[in-house]
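Lines hold sequence, tokenised fold; shown next:
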Amino acid sequence: MSELFGILIVFAPLILVMWLANLAERDRARQMPYENMAIFSYVLVVLIYVGALVVGVALQGLSLMLEQNPTRLQQLGLPVTDLMQNFDSLAIMGAGIWIPSVLGLLLLTPWMRRLAAKLIPIDPDSPVHAVALAFTMLVVINLIATLGIGLGNLSESIQAQTSAEGGNQSLATNISLWGQQIITALLALVGVGWAVRRGWSQSLQRLGITALTGRRLLIGVGLGIAMVPVVMVVEYVANTLLGVGVDPDVEALTEQLIGPLFNSPFGILTLGLAAALGEETIFRGALQPRFGLIFTAVLFALLHSNYGITISTLVVFVLGCVLGLVRLRFSTSTSMVVHAVYNMALGLIAYLNLSILNT
């Protein structure tokens, strides 16, 4: 339950900002005064990034201080961790937080929005598009923070926490993943104006979530299954010809995050259905029509920060491009099927491997 509470804390400000921006967009469409509401939503975005900027600068300052005086941690009574003792990681993480924060603030400015509109199909005068564009830098901050902490350190931390808490880890992971993806889908719905500018049916239509025909269902299932050997070939070629194998830290962290899902059929269903619900609704449904296929696929890949910057990131980018093409050619509903089947196929392979190893 603590993880769900943490997810709500993270997503609540984003949902609030998108709701306020949609109120402004509604008034703008009605040719009513909307500037005050738009500015209110922008101010909240500014507060988020200013807070992140302060954290980033503080981390760089801490790195410099500790490099000059390594005993300063004990003097201040702060915990001595591997991260705190790695001055370079602290400095990189600090820069990786405050620099994207500055970029996020710049993306709110009219001239940057007009520049972005030349590259991606956004309306530079739209409050909704403005805050959505600014929020893209949160993906970069999340990735840099993950890399700064270290995939291996995160894996060990999660393992230690799991051992301390005990209980049914598989159930906890299922609940956490469903909660995260449901809230992500809610953010997408609010982002496109549900209950403000659009009704339920209009919102689903804007997201590309429509009834599946038998043909589209078969196409989705077929592509989802076909993507599995394609990914295996990519990984094999990268390993044998380029010498780029799967990072052991990526494997360890992935095992801690979603490994418990591989232990049961319900977990495998969660792995496919929950991700299809949340990730496809927000990326292919809400973002792609405004950010374009490639930019959306890049964001999709970078959001999977548990892969760091590895061959796995490239695989997720390729998957994002395929899902984006499916969205363009058919619908978000079809891309949901592709995503769900692909994830469940990988989960089934892992489940069968575990079963064989345990016999």
User: Anything to note?
Assistant: The chain has two domains: 1-149, 167-359. The chain has a mean pLDDT of 87. The chain is about 80% helix and 0% strand.
